[in-house]
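[[Per-residue structure]]
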Amino acid sequence: MYGNVKIITQPGVDAPQATRQQVFNFVESELLAALGIPAVTAGMDLSGSALGTAPNAYRINVYGALGILAKLYLNAEVYVGTRMYDKAAIAAGYVIDSGAYRLCGDGCKVPNLGRRPAVASDPAELEGYAAVFAPNNENNPEHIFSVFYDQARAGGMNFSQMNLHYSSQFTWNFESQPWNGYATLEEFYNSYSDADVRKKNNFIVGPQLDFGGSAVLDYASDDGDLQLNYTPRINELAPNSLREAGARPGKFSYKQLGRPDMDNDYPIVRLGELYLIRAEARARDAGNWNLALPDVNVIRARAKVPAYTSIDADEFLRERGREMFQEGVRRTDLIRFGKYNGTWWEKPASQPFRNIFPIPQPAIDASAGTLKQNPGY
């Protein structure tokens, strides 16, 4: 993200500013050393790795390390100018073909902890894609490496506070009032078909009801309607955006009586993304996007939408966005597909130097002149 940083390997010992290539090499070498192999190749033997294969999503095993390597190699052409799509496909494929994990689809269920008994549309259980991100998603068969979150013991997951309108406190009887923060771009929301189960799971739209099935009210309504009604349309960003405008992210779903810190574990490596990594890597390596179809259609089958018969880069990016929404990869994806510097909604075009972040000024100030700012900033 920052490109040219210091690689600190010992406490209290400074290091010179490294290049992006050196950072890439370091990350790759650390992962390969942990796997006990000199390189990712077809037929590689990982039996000597000290990481082991025990399926604990809170500790890196060989599959977690391969998943991170797959992400690294998928972006290698951006990071260091060298195509490594063959390695990305091998790393992702090893995990998929191992059978150690499975997609959470039909029959993969957890109780719906956000259910309102008086609201008939609330299911008793969350199944498939919805179960992957639920408050009780620990031990999900799709999770390979995840951040452990718990409302009492491991705080920091607070999408409920960041995403929802203040009055949504009464829908889930939250301990604290949300902040009315993030909303979803209308164009992105509309990129889902109505039949896509991910659309229903990922977004909260329409008139809102409380635990007893009564209308949730917005007592400072600025649209003439007291009932809180999340509309996909956002009238404008500023200065007069409506308080309830925008579909609200609900992928990491909420539970009744939730605290500001949520229980939902956050996947860093999950099997669903590895299917998409292998699909993209195979397509890019061969220069034929239709080679992505088998793996992409596995993901679409889980989403209950028709299989593709052909695909191009733009449609693959749209499909990857629909699957990976709210998982922290969109910026990286847009850069890899050459879209990040373009325009959308109220965002103007930007210069390519913004593809990496500026090094924070406090870090430069503390470095005694050993850290230089990235070009363009």
Q: What stands out?
A: The mean pLDDT is 96.
